[in-house]
Amino acid sequence: MISEFLDFIRGDLSALEFILQLGALCFVIFCATPIHEFAHALIATKLGDDTPRSMGRLTIDPKAHIDPMGTLMLFLFGFGYAKPVQVRMRNFNKPKRDMALVALAGPVSNLIQSFVFFFFYSACVAIASRSGSEVVQYFGVFFLFAGSINVNLAVFNLLPVPPLDGSRLATALLPSKYYFKIMQYERYIQIGLFVLLFTGVLTTPLALLSGLIRGLILFVTSLPFGLF
After folding, report:
1. Angle between helices 134-157 and 95-131 (to 10 degrees)
2. Cβ-based neighbours of 73, under 8 Å, separated by 6 or more
3. pLDDT tens for each residue of the chain, 228 residues long
4. Are 120 and 105 in contact (CB under 8 A)?
5. What is the b/e burial string over 196-211, where b = at least 16 CB atoms within 10 angstroms of the residue's CB?
6. CA–CA separation, 126 vs 210, rounded Å?
7. Residue 102: exposure state from Cβ atoms within 10 A (0-12, 13-18, ≥19)
8. Which among 12, 136, 145, 173 would be 20 to 30 A from 120, CA to CA?
9. Contact call for residues 8 and 29 (beta carbons, < 8 A)
């Protein structure tokens, strides 16, 4: 959101477009991130671990999922996270496989949401190109930004860094002794992650990868409207 704010200050972004993008970010925080965490909780519950349900995480209520630091990172960098859903691997029938499925559920939910938002964006582009409606164009701005943030969330959360989903994938892929050795430095890893984002060292490659995925999804979702 920092880059959008700077564009607004420079005059490259209109006040209405900035407000729409800010609204899309708030929408994602209060709607998309709860769905992300609900997906974790749902898959974990289906696979035999009732911990998310007992801790009140099997819900899309934003109050149960929003993490202050992760939300701040979303506002500052466009990448962030929600409060991780607690699971117990010993409750799974196949612990490593099931943990990997639980970890992937959140990012997959974001990618599904991005498909929906980009589909509506492509529809707005098609309609606006024929009608010239500015209202439809502004709706398109909202859908484009909401879809882009969901892609960012999916990519960012797959980093193998606690408390992100990628660290749970590491649980499934690494031998336990190596994983727990890494987790001894969890706090320092989190600080390092924040520093890398703040300095832009990590933001640039993440943005490039997100851009590639966003371009692919936009291409796919625009295909139906190219037929008319």
Report:
1. 160
2. 79, 80, 81, 194, 197
3. 666 655 556 666 678 777 888 888 888 889 889 999 999 999 999 999 999 999 999 999 999 999 888 888 888 877 788 898 999 988 999 888 898 999 999 999 999 999 999 999 999 999 998 888 888 998 998 999 999 999 999 998 998 887 788 888 877 777 766 666 666 766 777 777 778 777 778 888 888 999 999 999 999 999 998 755
4. no
5. ebeeeebbeebbeebe
6. 24
7. buried
8. 12
9. no
Phi and psi, residue 101, nearest 5°: -65, -40
Report angle CA 158, 182, 80 to the nearest 5 degrees. 30
Rounded Cα distance between 228 and 224, Å, is 8
In one-letter notation, the amino acid at residue 228 is F
3-state secondary structure of 160: coil
Neighbouring residues of 62: CB distance < 8 A, sequence distance ≥ 6: 29, 30, 31, 33, 34
Residues assigned a catalytic role: 37
CB atoms within 10 A of CB 105: 22
Q: Which of 83, 87, 30 is nearest to 54 (CA)?
A: 87
Alpha-carbon distances, residue 89 vs 40, 49, 103, 217, 218 (angstroms): 13, 8, 12, 33, 37
Going by C-alpha positions, the residue among 45, 43, 83 that lies closest to residue 66 is 83
